[in-house]
Every structure is written in structure tokens, then in C-alpha cells.
């Protein structure tokens, strides 16, 4: 980062003076500078700010996104604690890792290099221009992180943003919006480049999405949310639900596969949509995999009555997980049916038939079913069935590249991780970046970058500028 010391000092002073003590207990109305009760007022403020922002050079945009990184990193621990206290999803160490990843690994203006095509007829240059005002809907599973990452990308692309945050993560999301907005102004950016709706409701969010000055929409959530943004007649970026299978082949490095699965499925107590939701393993190595998973921190449930109770508790009906248990620890969840396990257990695993409720439906809990299959062909087929064509994420542990290739070709997911853990797909723990928390599978953009939030413009120079 290249933020100068005077800018950092100014940022720290403003944040300390203006933000200390502003957050109220969950459930109370929060009065902050960048929250708007009136949708039209919020959009018009962002619209005016974006018109000013059009005059900013790329290097000035970078100074602003660097400022956002600096401010948010200084408050990363605070935001992680606030998010955990508000949502009860996940755990603090994983949440802090995700927060820091969103801050440091989200790409900025370096993603916007122009594309050029030149021949004897002249030159064509393709620039990546802003859309204008983006309406952004954020989830309860990665609330401040999504605000920060999307703000960095959207601002790098030259846009302004009106956030409509999830009501279940309103306070922590507001904190992120305010930190981002303060960082923008401290670095010389326009006021109201990032704003948010106060006490967002479905009606107010719908009004924002249909506002004529909002020219692009971005939403992270279930099928209903994605459908709503695509029905507005505007460019929409949709990050939908997933149900990532992890297939373990007979030739896999079983001890490593076990460690990776436990780490990934236990990451943030399985709340991320990229996390391993069901294990599909060739029968000949299933026992070895389970043994190694237990050694890696999993708890194996064998009692069929407990499994039946747990299934009903976690998912009372198909594709409808118990919201009270999403993102809670295995020990907490099992305590609800009178089963005590060590508090430090990463995941609970149990064997299940292929059509089991928790195999075929995304649960977002560290309660992971394991299905035995006779061979790779059956494993590939079941992986595709469990993923339901959502094209989100899938994982494969195998040393046979024919198997890896066949599964990748058939399942067609946006993220496909081979011999690793789900968070490697986000760039964490040795994975290849950049980081993306908005994974646009339904609309096809994939892991989002600043280019995602631009429109392509073509400049043609005929019979000119050919110097070969």
C-alpha cells in the first residue's frame, strides 16, 4: 500500500473522533452519517458523488482504495468481533482471517488495464468504464467483508455504491460502510461515494433496485435474491447458493484429503457457500478417510438414532436449514439433542445414503454427511447430482488427472479445487488469489474483480497509430 503518513494520520484522527461510541445495541435504530432513511435521497447522493468521481484519475482511485484497506485493517479485529456477536455465525479466528483476506487480497485498479488490438487498418482500444451507481445487496454470512471487498472493487472501477445490507447483520455492516466512507473522504474522495439504507426492508430494497439512477445491481444470497435483481431490467451480478460436493478418489492422498476436508468444512463453521457440504468417497478408502478425519479434529457419529434426530434438527424440511443453527459449532448443535462432544471439534461427520436430506440440500452447518460409492464414475455422477447444476463450487481429491478432468468438465462449477481445501479457492492458505467473496455463478461472471463492475467501451483509430 502507498498511503502517505499524513493521510493515515488524518484517517485515524477522523475515525477516532467521529466513530467512537456511535454503534447502538442490535435492534435499535442507528444514526450514522452515511445511512439514509429515504431511498431517493440515498441514490441521488451516490449519483452526485459518482459524477464528481468521474474526474478522478486511476492513481487517485488507487489512493482511495489503499486508504480503505488501511482504515479497515486497523479495525479488522473490532469488525470481526462485532460480526460474531451480532450474527453468531462461525468463529473468531476464521472470521478474522476472512476479514483480512477481504481487505488485503481484493484487487483494485491493477485489474483495469486496457485491451488493445492493432493491425494495418488502425487500432482498437477497449477500456473498462464505470456503470455509474451500483445497488449492492449484502448477506448475513460475510457482512462487513462483503461491504469492504465490493466497495474496493466497485470504487476501483469508478462507480459509487448504495448498499442494502442484510437486516440480520445490520450493525456490523453499518460499521463497515462508515469506515469505508470515512476512508474515502480522508483520502480526498467525494462524500457519499458509498452510502447505505437505514433499517433496510424488502420494500425499500426493491425501491432502490428499481430506481432509474441505479444502473447496475449486485446481490449475494439465495435464488430469490438473484431472481429479484435479474427481474429489474438492469445489468445484474448474482452470487447464488451452492452445495459443494467434495469427491475423494481411491488414489487420493487420504491423510491430506482428510485434513483439508476437516479444515474446509469447519471453516467459519461451514457458513461460506464455497465450503465442503457433503463428502463422496470411493468405498475402498472410506474407512481410512474417516479415521484420518477423526485424527484431524472431526467427531464421527455412528448411532443411527442420533443421526436421525440431528437431521430433523438441522433441516426440518428440504432446502430449509434451521436458521438458529446456521454457523454454530458442532458441540453447540449436538448439545441440542443431548449429545456432548469436545468444544474444539471442527466438524461432526456421519455416513448417509446418497439421497439423504443433508447430502442434497445446503445446510451451512459443520454437520457433514459422507456417502460411499463403488468407483470414480459413480462418485462423479453423484457429485453432479448433489451440486444441482448451481455451478458454484466443487472439490476433488485425486491423483488421476482423467478423473479430475472428467469431474471438472461435467460439473461446470465456477470454482473447482483439486487436492486442496475450499478456502484455497478464495486464495487463502497458499491458494492463488485474488480473493473474491462475491462469486457470480448464476450470472456467469465468476469470482468478481473490478472489471466485473465495468462496461466495455471501444475506441477505434482508423488508418492511424500503426508504427510497426
TrEMBL record:
Gene3D superfamilies, alphabetized: Aldehyde Dehydrogenase, Chain A, domain 1 (3.40.605.10), Aldehyde Dehydrogenase, Chain A, domain 2 (3.40.309.10)
Keywords: NAD, Oxidoreductase
Domain annotation Aldehyde dehydrogenase: ranges: 37-296
Protein name: Aldehyde dehydrogenase family protein
A GO MF label: acetaldehyde dehydrogenase (acetylating) activity
Superkingdom classification of source: Bacteria
Keyword Oxidoreductase: yes
InterPro entries: Acetald_propionald_DH-rel (IPR012408), Ald_DH/histidinol_DH (IPR016161), Ald_DH_C (IPR016163), Ald_DH_N (IPR016162), Aldehyde_DH_dom (IPR015590)
Amino acid at each position: 500500500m502507498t498511503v502517505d503518513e499524513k493521510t493515515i494520520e488524518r484517517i485515524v484522527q477522523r475515525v477516532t473522533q467521529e466513530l467512537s461510541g456511535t454503534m447502538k445495541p442490535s435492534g435499535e435504530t442507528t444514526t450514522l452519517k452515511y445511512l439514509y432513511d429515504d431511498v431517493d435521497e440515498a441514490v441521488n447522493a451516490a449519483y452526485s458523488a459518482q459524477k464528481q468521481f468521474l474526474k478522478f484519475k486511476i492513481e487517485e482511485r488507487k489512493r482511495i482504495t489503499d486508504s480503505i484497506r488501511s482504515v479497515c485493517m486497523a479495525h479488522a479485529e473490532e469488525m470481526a468481533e462485532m460480526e460474531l456477536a451480532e450474527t453468531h455465525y462461525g468463529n473468531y479466528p476464521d472470521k478474522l482471517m476472512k476479514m483480512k483476506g477481504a481487505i488485503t487480497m481484493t484487487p483494485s485498479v491493477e485489474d483495469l488495464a486496457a485491451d488493445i488490438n492493432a493491425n494495418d487498418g488502425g487500432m482498437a482500444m477497449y477500456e473498462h468504464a464505470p456503470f455509474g451507481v451500483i445497488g449492492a445487496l449484502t448477506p448475513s454470512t460475510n457482512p462487513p467483508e462483503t461491504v469492504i471487498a465490493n466497495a474496493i472493487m466497485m470504487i476501483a472501477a469508478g462507480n459509487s455504491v448504495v448498499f442494502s445490507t442484510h437486516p440480520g447483520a445490520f450493525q456490523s455492516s453499518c460499521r463497515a460502510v462508515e469506515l469505508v466512507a470515512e476512508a474515502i473522504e480522508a483520502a480526498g474522495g467525494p462524500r457519499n461515494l458509498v452510502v447505505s439504507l437505514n433499517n433496510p426492508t424488502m420494500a425499500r430494497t426493491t425501491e432502490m433496485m428499481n430506481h432509474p439512477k441505479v444502473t447496475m445491481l449486485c446481490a449475494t444470497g439465495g435464488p430469490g435474491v438473484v431472481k429479484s435483481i435479474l427481474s429489474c431490467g438492469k445489468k445484474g451480478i448474482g452470487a447464488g447458493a451452492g452445495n459443494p460436493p467434495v469427491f475423494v478418489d481411491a488414489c487420493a492422498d487420504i491423510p491430506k484429503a482428510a485434513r483439508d476436508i476437516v479444515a474446509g468444512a469447519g471453516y467459519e463453521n461451514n457458513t461460506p457457500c464455497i465450503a465442503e457440504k457433503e463428502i463422496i468417497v470411493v468405498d475402498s478408502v472410506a474407512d481410512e478417510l474417516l479415521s484420518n478425519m477423526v485424527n484431524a479434529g472431526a467427531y464421527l457419529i455412528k448411532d443411527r438414532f442420533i443421526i436421525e434426530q440431528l437431521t430433523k434438527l438441522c433441516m426440518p424440511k428440504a432446502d430449509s436449514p434451521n436458521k438458529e443453527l446456521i454457523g454454530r459449532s458442532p458441540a453447540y448443535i449436538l448439545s441440542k439433542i443431548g449429545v456432548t462432544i469436545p468444544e474444539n471439534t471442527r466438524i461432526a461427520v456421519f455416513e448417509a445414503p446418497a439421497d439423504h436430506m443433508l447430502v442434497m440440500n445446503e445446510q451451512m452447518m459443520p454437520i457433514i454427511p459422507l456417502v460411499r460409492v463403488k468407483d470414480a464414475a459413480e462418485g462423479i455422477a453423484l457429485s453432479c447430482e448433489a451440486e444441482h447444476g448451481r455451478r458454484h463450487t466443487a472439490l476433488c481429491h485425486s491423483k488421476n488427472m482423467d478423473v479430475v478432468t472428467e469431474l471438472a468438465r461435467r460439473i461446470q462449477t465456477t470454482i473447482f479445487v483439486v487436492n486442496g481445501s475450499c478456502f484455497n479457492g478464495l486464495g487463502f492458505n497458499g491458494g492463488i488469489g485474488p480473493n473474491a467473496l462475491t462469486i457470480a455463478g448464476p450470472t456467469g461472471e465468476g469470482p468478481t474483480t473490478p472489471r466485473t463492475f465495468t462496461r466495455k467501451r471501444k475506441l477505434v483509430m482508423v488508418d492511424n497509430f500503426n508504427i510497426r
